[in-house]
Amino acid sequence: MNPTATETYRKFSSDFFKALVGALTEASGSPWVITSGPDVVTATDRPDPVRIRLKLEGSLRGEFVLEFDREEAAMLASQLLRRPAGESGIDDSEALLRLIKSGLSEFRFALGKSYGTFEIDAASGAELPPDPAYAAQITAADDSPNRLSIVIYMNQELTEALQVDSPVENTTEDNGATVKTGVGEVIAPQVNLNLVMDVELNVTLRFGRRQLTLREVLELTSGSVVELDRQVDEPVELLLDGQVIAKGEAVVIDGNYGFRVTDVIQPVYSHLIR
Predict the structure, then answer these.
(1) Cα Rg for the chain, rounded, in angstroms?
(2) Nearest partner of 165 among 112, 228, 242, judged by Cα
(3) Which residues does residue 260 pair with via DSSP β-bridges, in sequence order?
(4) Considering the domain 3-164 in this protein, what is its CATH number?
(5) Residue ranges of E strands in the chain
(6) d(CA 91, CA 97)
C-alpha cells in the first residue's frame, strides 16, 4: 500500500477514534484515553463481534465498519446504561450505536476543515465490507482496569475518496502569516475582533433532525408528530453558521426557552477567522 495513502487513512481513523473516545468519556462519566494505535491490521478472529456501520455522504463518500469484541461491548454497555453487565434490557449493540451517534458532530468537525462538509449516519448489525481496503485498530482504557479494542474497516469507495480529497498544506503571503490546513497546525492570521464585537450573529438550537419524503411533508397536518433522530437525554446542539459550536440542555427562563452550555465543541474564535 502507498505510504502516503496509508498516512491519509491513519489520520482519518485517528480523528474518528479521538471523537469516539471523547464521546465515551462524556457518556460514561469516566475518563477514557487511547493507549495504542491506530495500528494497521489485516483482520480479527473474534467470535460473534458487535459491528456498527457508518455511511458518509457529501464531500466524502463511502462506508466504514467499527468492530467490537462481544465481551468488551457488554462491559461498555453496562457503563453507559449504569447497569450490571449481563442484566436484561437494551442490547449491547444499541447502547454502542447511541454512543457513536452522540459523537458524530465532533467527528464531522474534526475532519471538516480537511475534507469539507459531509453527513454521516450509523446503523448496527453490519457486515464487513467484502474486501476491506484498509483496517486499523486502537486500544482504549479508563481509570479502572477496563480495556477496549476497536477495529475500523474502510471500504474501497471511502479510501478512494480520501486519496482524492487528501488534506494539503496551503500557504498565503497576503498578510505575512502562514495558514496550514490538514495535518499541519493552523497558524491563524492576525485578526482584530474588537472591531466587530458588536456585530449580531444568528445562532440556532437543534434538538434533532429527520429526513422526510415529499409525501410525508405534504401529509403534515395540525397534530402531526415528527420523530427526530435524537433521544430525549441527548444534548441539544448550538449552531453558528451551520456548524456545531456547543452542546447543552434546554432550560426555561422567565417563561422563555433558554440554553445552558455544558460543552464547547468548537472555539468560536476559530470559526470566525476562517
Answers:
(1) 21
(2) 112
(3) 249
(4) 3.40.1550.10
(5) 33-40, 50-58, 62-68, 118-124, 134-141, 147-154, 203-206, 236-240, 243-253, 256-264
(6) 10
Q: pLDDT digits over 69-127, tens only?
A: 988 888 888 877 765 554 444 577 888 888 888 888 878 887 777 788 888 889 887 78
Residue 32: Cβ-neighbour burial (10 angstroms; 0-12, 13-18, 19+): buried
Torsion of CA 182, 111, 131, 91, to 10 degrees: 150
- Please list, in sequence order, all residues whose beta carbon lies within 8 angstroms of the beta carbon of residue 180, skipping any fewer than 6 positions away: 169, 170, 171, 186, 187
For 270, the 3-state DSSP assignment is: helix
Residue ranges covered by each domain of the chain: 3-164, 193-272
CATH class, domain 193-272, is: mainly beta
Whole-angstrom distance, CA of residue 126 vs CA of residue 94: 12
The three cell numbers of residue 154 are 474502510
Output b/e per residue, 115-143; b: 16+ Cβ within 10 A.
Answer: beebebebebebebbeebbbbbbbebbbe
- Cell 487511547 identifies what position? 34
Distance between CA atoms of residues 169 and 245, nearest Å? 25
Average pLDDT score over residue span 21-28: 84
| Spacing of C-alpha 272 from chain mean position | 22
* Predicted TM-score of the model (pTM): 0.59
**pLDDT tens digit string along 41-59?**
877 777 888 899 999 998 8
What would the grid cell of residue 33 be? Answer: 484515553
Handedness of CA 266, 270, 271, 274 (dihedral sign): negative
